[in-house]
Amino acid sequence: MPTPPRRPGWGPAAVRASQQARALDRIRALHAPVQHGRRIICGHCSGYGNGSCDNAAVPYPCPTIRAIDDPQETSP
What we know:
It contains 2 helices and 4 strands. It is α+β, with helices and mostly antiparallel strands. The strands form 2 sheets. Strands 1-2 form a two-stranded antiparallel ribbon. A two-stranded antiparallel sheet has the order 3-4.
């Protein structure tokens, strides 16, 4: 039995790109900005919950979001 024709634009590279885009969306949702007093912080990196932080407050954008937005950035 012959294989059905593929839809144009949905080869392995397009599927992989779609998966990567969804992964980046999940990372952005996890590292979402949160208002903490007068500052905007990363809720995930700061361990934010119930109005307080478990860790030191990490300013938003955090290193994770900066790495996504500017992968060529060299500072830590």
